[in-house]
């Protein structure tokens, strides 16, 4: 069927009537169609995490190499967000979204077949998997930001808040469902199913998008590709994200890491210079004149640093601090993303009555409170005690996920929703990557100090106990020194030893055979008591390391709170809306009816 194109100028305060296949568009059906795509992209960012140990074992790889299964996805995804958003504005958002779904589906299928490719070619299967994860990320870059641009184009102003609430809630569902679904699939099938599961959803999504989503693009934008802008921006983001990802393993002061940071700065400078001379730049710097856009991006950057690393730290806390297995830790962490999901939906319904900047401020404030409360837990805190404190984080996340996407595009002309959304998601993704690097670095640095301190305190506990024979005390102290040194050196301060109960009762076997049974029983009881005290000491010091990470996260949350407050103070919505309306008249959105 032949397509017809109509340029419809958007008058101030009005919304064009969109059609697809000759019928008026139904916005909520559009939302349902888009969810199949961008939800899978979000889910894949978390579902693989819990399967990494199984993938490492199955593909007979080392941890450093297999970690690139995660890093390759995050790196390519971050690099392409702005570029794909720009292409969507130029060539059509629906078109780019569907291309992204196809690439993502093919990448998922190939990821699941990595072992087959390895057997056929003789190359390591893990290398194929890493490459296909990069292919997946190319597709994912066309799903998340473009879906937001389509939602902003399709939904009338009065319903955008509720729609973005659903869009934001999907992030919470993906964060909650990823580890749990991944754990279920790995335990009951195998790791390949975490990729196979994407394919049927993407097929259904492709059909629904083709049938129900209208095409929107900017007819006035040149189709000329900004090669210089794409290359310099991609190099800058690539260097920055790679330095962040590898900073902990390479060393933050290493020549490679410093060189990448220098490359990122140089790339950014060249990008700015190149864009100033472009008639159709990939990034329109005038977008940053809008306080709402700049403030939302900056707030999201700080939010990303604070929350992404914190979620990983929370999972590690349940595994290393409380002795849970991976799936138990995933279930234990559910209150955070579930609260985020529910709150995002509720906030979306209230968005017409409450300034989104106010919602963002409340969200960042709740994050600060949540981090502050977590800093007061100790080794004796129950799961419920930890869970209710973490609910503040989930609530704050829900408010942020609902408010900041809408706020970032509030004063952006509809014709530039794609690139605007790409920039916003790039700030978020870089914040996420930086947050994981910073908080893991803080945690490992703290644990390398706290575990030896726990060992020192444990030795003092043994020396202070007068009910143990001196020779036995000496043997226990020697064992503690060896265990503490080995744990810190070999595990890199992961704190795994803290989740294990210290059992000293085995030392009873070294007592003389002729010793009375009653005396042996008394010593065994004393050894159990001392063992419990030592276990508690290691758990306390490990908890302190987690608290150090949460303190740093709270600092970034405070920075985000300040950013949101300054944005509210400086924002002049009437002037910004007037400028946006003028831009809309100059650059109308093209509606293509199938």
Automatic annotation (TrEMBL):
<dbReference type="InterPro" id="IPR020846">
    <property type="entry name" value="MFS_dom"/>
</dbReference>
<dbReference type="GO" id="GO:0005886">
    <property type="term" value="C:plasma membrane"/>
</dbReference>
<dbReference type="InterPro" id="IPR036259">
    <property type="entry name" value="MFS_trans_sf"/>
</dbReference>
<keyword id="KW-1003">Cell membrane</keyword>
<feature type="transmembrane region" description="Helical">
    <location>
        <begin position="430"/>
        <end position="447"/>
    </location>
</feature>
<dbReference type="GO" id="GO:0022857">
    <property type="term" value="F:transmembrane transporter activity"/>
</dbReference>
<feature type="transmembrane region" description="Helical">
    <location>
        <begin position="28"/>
        <end position="52"/>
    </location>
</feature>
<feature type="transmembrane region" description="Helical">
    <location>
        <begin position="391"/>
        <end position="409"/>
    </location>
</feature>
<feature type="domain" description="Major facilitator superfamily (MFS) profile">
    <location>
        <begin position="30"/>
        <end position="472"/>
    </location>
</feature>
<feature type="transmembrane region" description="Helical">
    <location>
        <begin position="358"/>
        <end position="379"/>
    </location>
</feature>
<dbReference type="InterPro" id="IPR011701">
    <property type="entry name" value="MFS"/>
</dbReference>
<feature type="transmembrane region" description="Helical">
    <location>
        <begin position="191"/>
        <end position="213"/>
    </location>
</feature>
<keyword id="KW-0812">Transmembrane</keyword>
<keyword id="KW-0472">Membrane</keyword>
<feature type="transmembrane region" description="Helical">
    <location>
        <begin position="96"/>
        <end position="117"/>
    </location>
</feature>
<feature type="transmembrane region" description="Helical">
    <location>
        <begin position="137"/>
        <end position="155"/>
    </location>
</feature>
<dbReference type="InterPro" id="IPR005829">
    <property type="entry name" value="Sugar_transporter_CS"/>
</dbReference>
<feature type="transmembrane region" description="Helical">
    <location>
        <begin position="251"/>
        <end position="277"/>
    </location>
</feature>
<dbReference type="Pfam" id="PF07690">
    <property type="entry name" value="MFS_1"/>
</dbReference>
<feature type="transmembrane region" description="Helical">
    <location>
        <begin position="547"/>
        <end position="570"/>
    </location>
</feature>
<keyword id="KW-0813">Transport</keyword>
<feature type="transmembrane region" description="Helical">
    <location>
        <begin position="298"/>
        <end position="319"/>
    </location>
</feature>
<dbReference type="InterPro" id="IPR001958">
    <property type="entry name" value="Tet-R_TetA/multi-R_MdtG-like"/>
</dbReference>
<feature type="transmembrane region" description="Helical">
    <location>
        <begin position="162"/>
        <end position="185"/>
    </location>
</feature>
<keyword id="KW-1133">Transmembrane helix</keyword>
<feature type="transmembrane region" description="Helical">
    <location>
        <begin position="225"/>
        <end position="245"/>
    </location>
</feature>
<dbReference type="InterPro" id="IPR004638">
    <property type="entry name" value="EmrB-like"/>
</dbReference>
<protein>
    <submittedName>
        <fullName>MFS transporter</fullName>
    </submittedName>
</protein>
<feature type="transmembrane region" description="Helical">
    <location>
        <begin position="64"/>
        <end position="84"/>
    </location>
</feature>
<comment type="similarity">
    <text>Belongs to the major facilitator superfamily. TCR/Tet family.</text>
</comment>
<feature type="transmembrane region" description="Helical">
    <location>
        <begin position="331"/>
        <end position="351"/>
    </location>
</feature>
């Amino acid at each position: 069927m032949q397509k017809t194109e109509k340029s419809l100028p958007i008058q101030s305060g009005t919304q064009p009537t969109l059609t697809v296949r000759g019928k008026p568009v139904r916005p909520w059906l559009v939302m349902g169609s888009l969810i199949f795509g961008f939800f899978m992209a979000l889910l894949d960012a978390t579902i693989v995490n819990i399967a990494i140990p199984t993938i490492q074992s199955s593909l007979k790889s080392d941890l450093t190499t297999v970690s690139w299964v995660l890093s390759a996805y995050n790196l390519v995804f971050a690099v392409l967000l702005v570029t794909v958003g720009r292409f969507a504005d130029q060539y059509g958002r629906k078109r780019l979204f569907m291309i992204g779904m196809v690439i993502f589906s093919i990448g998922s299928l190939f990821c699941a077949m990595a072992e087959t490719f390895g057997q056929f070619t003789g190359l390591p299967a893990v290398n194929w998997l890493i490459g296909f994860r990069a292919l997946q990320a190319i597709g994912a870059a066309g799903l998340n930001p473009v879906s937001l641009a389509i939602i902003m184009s399709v939904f009338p102003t009065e319903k955008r808040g509720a729609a973005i609430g659903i869009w934001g809630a999907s992030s919470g569902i993906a964060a909650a469902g990823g580890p749990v679904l991944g754990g279920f699939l790995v335990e009951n099938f195998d790791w390949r199913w975490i990729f196979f599961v994407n394919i049927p959803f993407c097929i259904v999504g492709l059909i629904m998008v083709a049938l129900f989503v209208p095409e929107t693009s900017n007819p006035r934008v040149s189709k000329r590709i900004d090669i210089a802008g794409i290359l310099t921006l991609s190099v800058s983001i690539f260097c920055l994200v790679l330095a962040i990802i590898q900073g902990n393993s390479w060393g933050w002061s290493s020549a490679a890491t410093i060189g990448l940071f220098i490359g990122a700065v140089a790339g950014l400078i060249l990008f700015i210079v190149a864009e100033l001379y472009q008639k159709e730049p990939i990034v329109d710097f005038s977008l940053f004149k809008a306080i709402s856009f700049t403030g939302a991006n900056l707030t999201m950057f700080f939010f990303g640093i604070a929350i992404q690393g914190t979620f990983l730290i929370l999972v590690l806390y349940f595994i290393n601090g409380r002795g849970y297995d991976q799936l138990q830790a995933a279930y234990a962490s559910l209150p955070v993303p579930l609260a985020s999901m529910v709150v995002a939906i509720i906030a979306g319904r209230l968005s017409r009555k409450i300034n989104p900047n106010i919602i963002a401020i409340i969200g960042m404030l709740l994050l600060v409170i949540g981090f502050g409360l977590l800093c007061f837990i100790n080794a004796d805190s129950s799961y419920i005690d930890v869970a209710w404190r973490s609910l503040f984080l989930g609530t704050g996340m829900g408010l942020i996920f609902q408010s900041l996407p809408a706020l970032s595009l509030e004063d952006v002309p509809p014709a530039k929703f794609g690139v605007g959304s790409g920039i916003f998601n790039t700030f978020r993704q870089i914040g996420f990557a930086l947050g994981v690097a910073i908080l893991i670095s803080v945690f490992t640095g703290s644990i390398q100090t706290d575990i030896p301190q726990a060992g020192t305190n444990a030795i003092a506990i043994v020396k202070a106990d007068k009910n143990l024979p001196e020779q036995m005390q000496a043997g226990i102290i020697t064992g503690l020194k060896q265990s503490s040194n080995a744990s810190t050196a070999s595990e890199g301060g992961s704190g795994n030893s803290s989740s294990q109960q210290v059992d000293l009762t085995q030392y009873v076997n070294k007592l003389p055979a002729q010793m009375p049974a009653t005396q042996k029983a008394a010593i065994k009881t004393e050894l159990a008591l001392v063992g419990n005290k030592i276990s508690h000491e290691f758990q306390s010091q490990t908890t302190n390391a987690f608290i150090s990470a949460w303190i740093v996260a709270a600092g970034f949350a405070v920075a985000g709170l300040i950013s949101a407050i300054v944005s509210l103070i400086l924002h002049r919505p009437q002037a910004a809306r007037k400028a946006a309306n003028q831009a809309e008249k100059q650059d109308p959105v093209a509606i293509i009816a199938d």
